[in-house]
Structure formats: C-alpha cells, structure tokens
Amino acid sequence: MNVYDFDKTILNDDSTKLFLLYCFRKMPRLFFKGPVDKISSFYAYAAGKKSVDRFKENMFGFLPYVSDLNVLLQDFWDRNMWRVEPYYRKVQRPDDLIISASPDFLVRPMAERLGAELIATDMSPFSGKIRGVNCKREEKVRRFRQLYPDASVEAFYSDSLSDTPMAKLADQAWLIVDHEPVPWPFEKSSAGQ
Questions:
Q1: CA torsion sign, 125 to 129 to 132 to 133?
Q2: What pLDDT sits at residue 44?
Q3: Strand, helix or coil at 21?
Q4: Nearest to residue 190, comparing CAs of 151, 169, 161?
Q5: How far apart are CA 70 and CA 62, in angstroms?
Q6: Beta-carbon neighbour count of residue 124 at 10 Å?
Q7: Each residue of 12-44: b (16+ CB within 10 Å) or e?
Q8: pLDDT in tens, 5-59
Q9: Helix-strand-coil split of the chain, %, nearest 5
C-alpha cells in the first residue's frame, strides 16, 4: 500500500484554500453567511489567537446555506482535476490511500476519481463543524492504525515534515519538493519535532 498526504502532495495546491476561493467567487454573499466574520477569523488565526480547528470551522460556516453541496463539489473538482501532480500519475496504484487534514467531504470526490481510499478530517458538510480531532501529525498514524492495524506501508508521500510520524511507518518515505518526490530527510525532521 502507498499512502499520500493530499494537499501539495497529490494536488499541486491546498484544496481547502482553493475551495474557499471558488465558493467566494461563485457565491460571494453566501460565503459571508455564518456565525463568524471570515476576515477577523483569519487575523485571529494568523495572530495565534485561534486554533486551526476553530479557524477551519469558521471558514466553512457558510455550509448550512449551500443548497446542493454535491453539485458544487463536482463542479469544483471538474475545474481542478488538472491540478493532480504528474509524478502521482506515474506511481499511482489501485490500493492507494490518501490521509489528509482537509475535510473528508471536500477530498472524497477527488479520492473517488483517483480510485484511492481516504482518511481525512471528519467535518460535517451541513454545519462545517469538525467531529472529533483534526487529522494531522500523530492523529494520522492513530487513525491509520485504527483502520489498517496490520497493513504495511510500502511508500509514503507528503510535502510536509510534520508528517514524519507517518513517514516513519513506511518502507520508503518521499518528501515532495518542487512537485517531485525526494528521499525523506529523517535526521533533519526529527530534530525539529
């Protein structure tokens, strides 16, 4: 089994950022609905006064007002299919697993298009609230082992050294640098963790 982070690993950008920008352009008035002002939420997050989880929930606070999220997501991914990294097409296998901190409802349509299984942050597509824990760092390992207790990871790919806990599970680990996989720099990543 090969395991991949998603944003800036399989996709050449951040799916949450792209989707929020897409929604803002497509329905600007609807985007600003919700319990929290998006601009003040961004500044509070940037200043370290708001956790990434609360920031995500605030940014997705418009979801209760979307009439057909599935249609919106299909159109979004139709427009962004070209963003799949070329290296991924070369190494893609039928037993691929994507493990991402991005919302499950957002990444799942693309994972299905790619024929990959998915573990991601469980966010309600109806409220924008995270159910449980954001799927990042050690949480990725915990959730992977919960669903695949005996699985071996042949290769792991990510753009971020924060994914070192997952990289350590793999026979081979690859860091995505300038859109290409390079061997994981374990000695550098463990010193800063």
A1: positive
A2: 62
A3: helix
A4: 161
A5: 15
A6: 16
A7: beebbebbbebbeeebeeebeebeeebeebeeb
A8: 999 999 999 999 999 999 989 988 876 666 556 666 666 666 777 677 877 888 8
A9: 45, 20, 35
- pTM, full prediction: 0.88
Q: Residue by residue, what is the 3-state secondary structure of 126-177?
A: CCCCECCCCCCCHHHHHHHHHHCCCCCEEEEEECCHHHHHHHCCEEEEEEEE
Quickly tell me which residue has 């690993």 as its tokens.
9
pLDDT at site 33: 66
DSSP class per residue in 34-75: SSS-HHHHHHHHHTTSS-HHHHHHHHTTTGGG-S-HHHHHHH
Amino acid residing at 10: I
For the record, the structure tokens of 97 come out as: 């697993």
- What residue type is 63 in one-letter code? L
d(CA 28, CA 168): 43
Q: What is the pLDDT of residue 45?
A: 60
Gap between the Cα atoms of 147 and 135, Å rounded: 13
